[in-house]
Amino acid sequence: MTKKLDRRTAYTRMVIKESLYKLLEKKHLSEITVKELCAQADINRTTFYRNYMDIYDLYEQLEEELTEQAFADGDIQKDRYKLLELIYENQTFYREFFDSRLESR
């Protein structure tokens, strides 16, 4: 029974992340609301808050996951290519990531 719950949680988080990516294609992170994200993901707000504190918590967790994926091998040469591949595959996320870094300067 625990396995079923874990898969369900993993699926919910995947849907939330995909929904965030879709919304980031249209607007900046600061313009996205939990209500809007939940409507896009077809989940209720309680489900969202069971997994994340807010939109920024979700975004930070995505950033951590992608960073871990990029540098998992420990081989600098492989990590460079993996990082570029991750950036390419997750362009929507990284567009917001780089835009937010530039705006804070």
UniProtKB/TrEMBL annotation:
Domain HTH tetR-type: from-to ranges: 10-70
Domain of life per record: Bacteria
Entry's Gene Ontology molecular function annotations: DNA binding
Keywords: DNA-binding
Membrane-traversing stretches: none
DNA-binding region: 33-52
Protein name: HTH tetR-type domain-containing protein
Species in which this protein is naturally found: Absicoccus porci
Lineage of the species this protein comes from: Bacteria, Bacillati, Bacillota, Erysipelotrichia, Erysipelotrichales
